[in-house]
Fold each of these.
Amino acid sequence: MLTISVIIPVYNAALFLEKSVQSALQFNEVKEILLIEDQSTDNSLEICQKLASENSGIKLFQHADKGNHGAGASRNLGIEKATCDFIAFLDADDYYLPNRFDAEKEILKETKIDGVFGAIGVEYLTEKGRQEFQEKFKNVSLTTVNYAAEGEEVFRGLLGLTPRIFGTFFHLNALTVRRSAVEKHRLRFNENLRVHQDSDFNIKLSYFCHLKSGIIDKAIAVRGVHDHNRITKIIPYSSQYNARQLMLWQSLYNWAVTNNLPSAYSKRIYLSFKSFDLSQKKGFTKYVNIIWEAVKNYKILKTRYRYHYYK
């Protein structure tokens, strides 16, 4: 049987935390739930303490200085403290559905498979949250990929290198991964990224590890959408959005160089990094840089971010 450590970063989640934890407790496979409390300003810490006192499988941790370090650092602490064979993640304002680990039970019998990912749905907890989410993501009710894939195809798909559009994102709530694979490759979240650290982690994970899609046509977990979701506050293609994307692709480019990725991959990552880098430049300098980059590789003018160059 699978043994799973569920890592839940906790920051100002008092309204949602108990439901989140209870959704993980329903599974026999979940042997421990690691609550990583990140200096909340509400009563989340007290709720964590209460939950941990009631169930020995719920373990409460804080950072060494008991300070606020962000979701990436909290997940890293959870990885360090996890003891089960597999790791799963859950945001404190989200919850698992009863089919959460159905695919894993079969797929992870294959020892070559390091991880499985699926689809998540959405629940609107406030009207303002609904409006902001739908404005940004339209009527998308399922965060998933477009077709079943495994191994290198997943990595290539996340980079947009497959003939058929795979999708650029799968949610951490729907990922289950072997702890030994994470440790073998020393995979951790980039703590300098306060947003998009999940995308950064997933892309790196899919390069080093053999991932396989599980249930991708229906939700296995639910994202709670409310007034304080950070991801919905960033307007697509705004200066703030471009700056956050630049940080993500800068992280991935540095990683690609350090790990000497094959040319096709490193070039694709560089194009994404440079396109957002160019979007931050102003005036004459911007156009000089565009021309120089186009001379080196004309494909930069064909990226999906190309229209930023002319603003």
Note: The two ends are 55 Å apart (CA to CA).
Amino acid sequence: MKQRKKFGLALGSGGPKGLVHVGVIKELIKSGIRIDYIAGTSIGAWVGAHYSLFQDIGLLEELTVGRRLTKFAALLNPTLKGGFISGEKLQKVLGGWLHEAKFADTKIPFRCVATDLIAGKEKIFSRGPLVSAVQASMAIPSLFRPVMVDGNFYVDGGLINPVPDDVAKKMGAQVILSVNLDNCKTKHGFTLKNITSISRVGARAVDIMRHYLAEFGIRNSDFVIRPQMKDMEPSLWKEYFLGKYGPELVAIGEKETRKIINQIKKALK
């Protein structure tokens, strides 16, 4: 009997846009596609770690879409040493949600990517506590204080490998679906009239840089989802914490996955 090809999922960085990842996994589950490997960066690290550990998409959706007050309170942890947020409260929240588990405890093999701030190199976490690795992968520079793991300082993996499809391939994946949340070409509400402020120019420049870094990196992917956020993105952080966006982003992930689900099934045969 012919053995099914191994399927890997590469979940990219992107802050609140990462709710799309939840929708992608939901649709894969509905379609009966088994995920053999997961690699994640930043928000993709959180989603990947939790699903790999518990395989409970309902709980993952509840924690990722909801619990906004808990997450906002975890950000109220000010410091001026290496960032504006120390991350100690966030570490406690993640520890509770991930049950202080280790990589060895996951039901699905999982890896996540961070950036070694001193060496300027990629760090692929594959062993030890999940919490410190996920927190390191999500530590946006200057916003969060760098996370120390085994004597080294780490920050957001999106600086170096925003969509880690190469990691999924090294894990053994033969068919890889990547979710790239950095799509600058849709402009996301930026116009000639409203892009004149310094902050908007800077934000747009970072969007473009992230887009091309991500696109350059996804050379091992058989399928890539590039979700369209329409006009959500410029104020997505604020609107997320105000409770406006959440289920809508999950639905985008489901919709985009449905478009290619039959192609994925065919590739896995």
Note: The first helix runs from residue 19 to 30.
Amino acid sequence: MTESNPRDWIGNSVERRDLLGATLVDRIAATFGAPRPAPDEDLPALWHWAFFQAPVDAQALGADGHPARGGFMPPADGRNRMWAGGRLTFRSALRVGREAVCDSEIVDVKEKQGRTGSLLFVTLRHRISQDGRLAVEEEQDIVYREPSPPKRSLDKPVADADWQETIHPDPVLLFRYSAVTFNAHRIHYDWPYVTDTEGYPGLVVHGPMIATLLVGAFKDANPRAQIETFSFRGLRPLVAPKPFDVCGRIESAGHATLWAANEDGPAHEAELTFSEEPE
């Protein structure tokens, strides 16, 4: 590989196996205040993000707490990392207490120019299987951006919602989600780092946690729905401890739009398709 060309990393792949163990599932449930699925019950949508995490030694981490780049991920020195969004297809349920396999591959790397400078977009594809069946197909968009002041508000109207839940993102919630997902990114728990080094006004709420809360609110409002696809993207960061709402509405049969917003406007948006279990 040539370090000067991040596109050389396209095709990098890795396989990880993990037991979707009840202990970690209980900790995720406690983090969200959600019911605890028992062994052999379905793992709630997006809880798989707590699994298949590489246990990287401390000396192999970069200054931001992420694994140092230039290994599996391409080098992006001097840039800040964000999870920009993703797309998922749920083909069958993952079951608690059973082993699963995640095959991951870098499928694209692109350099783009944004309003704040150069952006490096890395697209990851994950295929998660259990008991010989493909359960989840996922693409994740990771963006590395040059240091710049974060966007604090968005002048865009917020739609009327069919359902809405208010989230109070205190530091304990952020810490516990970092812990269950083995995420050492310092913007979520290290106040001096996130304010002095990356220029945020406070601790940043995890994009994956916001996505999980959006799906959880949808399921609370539509308990018979079976999620088939889910796509989401971040518009701007949400910062603790300012409350935000996770909302959504049914646009048509089997199609919903979801969003997260606070008094400063929308921050994340998503679309979801679903079918309904018969009564």
Note: Strands lie at 13-19, 80-90, 99-114, 117-130, 133-145, 163-167, 225-234, 244-252, 255-262, 265-276.
Amino acid sequence: MNSQLTSADRQYLQRALELAERGRGRVSPNPLVGAVVIRDGEVIGEGWHAELGGLHAERAALADCERRGEDPAGATMYVTLEPCAHQGRQPPCVEALLEAKVARVVIASDDPSEKTAGRGPTILREAGVEVDFATDPETTAARLLNQPFRKHARNGLPFVTLKLAMSLDGQTTTAPGDSPWISGPESRALVHRWRAESDAIAVGIGTALADDPLLTARPDSGDTAQTPCQPLRIVFDSDARLPVTSQLLQTLDQAPVLIVIAPNADPERVSALRDAGAEIVVASGETPAVRIEAALSDLGRREVTSLFLEGGQSLATSFSAAGQIDESRTFVAPMLLGDDDRRAGPVVGEGGALRAGSSSAPPSPAPPARATALASSVETVGDDVLITARFKEW
């Protein structure tokens, strides 16, 4: 049941949410989860899901109790997601809670997974454990923590985040011969952190040809205590034009490359890309939106729960028109680049996106072509302004 939480309950749930963040970029396709064990107003154990295949937060917190020489019997556990009751990479957390004789479990949010939803809390209650679900703001915070996991659990598709960088006059590219960077060094460092936290990063073929990017996560050495996880690198390339000499295909030892093509792509070019080591996905469908759905569905089957769109205009337009952008992160740099026919705004009208950037998309709560954010925030990053807009909540 939902309960009126005390100020102490909220404090411990906030701590559990902080702990959950420590697994970011390390546990996908699993959710971020944190847990705190309290007895007589004292913390006797803390834990979080630290890496895929490792202990879940509840078992990690109970193990911490043991390390501290504390007995969790009769204690309260605060956890950000309902405990699982099924065997996965780890045994059910519910079993560990019952074995530890925990008296009360306070849960910040539900788990929408079909194999999980509601089972753990039911088993705990039937065994005599008091189970309480939190209400806002802790519930909302816990759900927002795991938007990629929640979306994938509900419809099998990855959570799509669009990253943009533009000048004050709306330009997203610089003129030939100029520095390629619009955003500042602090913003670029943040983007590398986001890459490391994403399952996959995507660009259109236009960006791949113009920039020859690596698309690897390269955060500053002080930005992460561990070697960053590298995302799957994706190019939406209808006509299979990516050169086999590209940096992407020359660095397969760093991260895999997947190329999304149209059914009528040149077979010889497709074969050359395969021979170079790229994975190929054929996105079929009568409309761009259906082709985007096909590509996203394929990624979902690969357990890609988060997709980071990093360029360019055609790709952004295709996903926007298909209603497949869940969140956008836009850097606005303090510069004027001037009107130039060679450049356009970040999301252009319907057009060549799917020829230049082959795509596909899914049904689900999709915003209209002109979408209004459910929530937004503004912050400064170095000299830039970062605008984050969330269009869907899962």
Note: The chain has a mean pLDDT of 89.
